[in-house]
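stage 2 :: seqdesign
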């Protein structure tokens, strides 16, 4: 059978080199802090309190949170930048292409209205001049009805 015997190393038997402990200098630091402290928690801001709690969260978790917030910030910045550039392109295109087109379209509508008015004037002139050579027994409403077509009725 095997027996174990403990051999003590001489190095561990010696005392450590250093200052001698003086028990007179030893004081209870907890009681001194609680009695003599001038700390006022009402002077501390919410941000300072959160900053003091940073050591509670492990470094890996702090790194993950920091990276996530940084990535989200970069994403928001990129989206806003792209949105601003897109808005610039759309608005400048509208100004350069849309306004001239709208003005040309409005001018074309005005020309069509003028042509329509001219046709109506010609028609009215023909009706007025047609009254002299037309049958004397026919009324003006009948003349308008025949000039404008059978489906048109005179308004009273």
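stage 2 :: out
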């Amino acid at each position: 059978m095997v027996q174990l015997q403990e051999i003590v190393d001489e190095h561990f038997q010696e005392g450590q080199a250093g200052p001698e402990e003086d028990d007179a200098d030893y004081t209870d630091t907890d009681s001194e802090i609680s009695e003599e402290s001038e700390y006022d928690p009402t002077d501390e801001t919410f941000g300072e309190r959160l900053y003091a709690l940073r050591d509670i969260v492990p470094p890996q978790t702090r790194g993950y949170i920091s990276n996530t917030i940084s990535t989200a910030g970069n994403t928001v910045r990129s989206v806003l930048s792209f949105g601003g550039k897109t808005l610039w392109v759309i608005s400048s295109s509208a100004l350069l292409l849309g306004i001239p087109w709208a003005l040309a379209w409005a001018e074309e509508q005005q020309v069509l209205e003028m042509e329509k008015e001219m046709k109506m004037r010609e028609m009215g002139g023909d009706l007025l001049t047609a009254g002299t050579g037309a049958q004397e027994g026919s009324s003006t409403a009948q003349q308008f009805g025949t000039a404008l077509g059978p489906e048109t009725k005179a308004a009273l």
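stage 3 :: structure notes
- The CA atoms of residues 6 and 12 lie 13 Å apart.
- The chain has a mean pLDDT of 79.
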